[in-house]
């Protein structure tokens, strides 16, 4: 797969940024995982301090998709750790964007997957199974819908209605 740079996509599709079709997420994320750049169709989950739906989604075949987790921006526990990163890698996910925290950072960094999250936190999440899957989420100032396309690299994270090319 050809690596697309978010900077080049923003330059090429500048009008789409102005119109709101191409959304640039606020620069609030830390980078984890050994895959520094990733892209793919989006799957979404909306949870709060509970990662049961995150695990359930990553247990599915990823087919190069990106999971966007709206964790409400909570900094009180981690929604993803090394086991889930290894699961995502094994099941063919391209990356995970977490509006919340991760843990087991050294384990995540050994996985061939891209992860963006607000911070690291040692505490695990609740396990109640409460949340929503494949709906509309709001993360880092952007509205994100399951089935849209995400591209992330060292310069940021962008979301578009469909896959972009240069």
From TrEMBL:
The reaction(s) this protein catalyses: oxaloacetate + H(+) = pyruvate + CO2; 4-hydroxy-4-methyl-2-oxoglutarate = 2 pyruvate
Keywords from the UniProt entry: Lyase, Magnesium, Metal-binding
Positions contributing to Mg(2+) binding: 104
UniProt GO molecular function: 4-hydroxy-4-methyl-2-oxoglutarate aldolase activity; metal ion binding; oxaloacetate decarboxylase activity; ribonuclease inhibitor activity
Cited SUPFAM superfamilies: RraA-like (SSF89562)
Transmembrane segments annotated in the record for this chain: none
Cofactors demanded by this protein: a divalent metal cation; Mg(2+)
CDD domains: RraA_family
Group of enzyme by EC: lyase
Protein's UniProt keywords contain Cytoplasm: no
Record-listed E.C. numbers: 4.1.1.112, 4.1.3.17
Coiled-coil stretches: none
Cited InterPro entries: RraA, RraA/RraA-like, RraA/RraA-like_sf
Family of the protein in this entry: Belongs to the class II aldolase/RraA-like family.
Subunit structure, interactors included: Homotrimer.
Name of protein: 4-hydroxy-4-methyl-2-oxoglutarate aldolase
Biological source species: Wollemia nobilis
């Amino acid at each position: 797969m050809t690596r697309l740079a978010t900077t080049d996509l923003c330059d090429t599709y500048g009008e789409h940024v102005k119109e709101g079709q191409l959304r640039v997420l606020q620069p609030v994320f830390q980078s984890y995982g050994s895959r520094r750049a990733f892209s793919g169709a989006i799957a979404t989950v909306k949870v709060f301090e509970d990662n049961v739906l995150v695990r359930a989604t990553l247990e599915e075949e990823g087919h190069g998709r990106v999971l966007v987790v709206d964790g409400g921006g909570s900094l009180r526990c981690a929604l993803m750790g090394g086991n889930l990163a290894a699961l995502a890698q094994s099941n063919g996910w391209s990356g995970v964007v977490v509006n919340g925290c991760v843990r087991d950072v050294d384990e995540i960094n050994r996985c061939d997957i891209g992860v963006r999250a607000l911070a690291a936190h040692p505490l695990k999440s609740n396990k109640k199974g409460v949340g929503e899957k494949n709906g509309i989420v709001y993360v880092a100032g952007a509205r994100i819908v399951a089935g849209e396309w995400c591209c992330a690299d060292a310069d940021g994270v962008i979301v578009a209605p469909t896959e972009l090319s240069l």
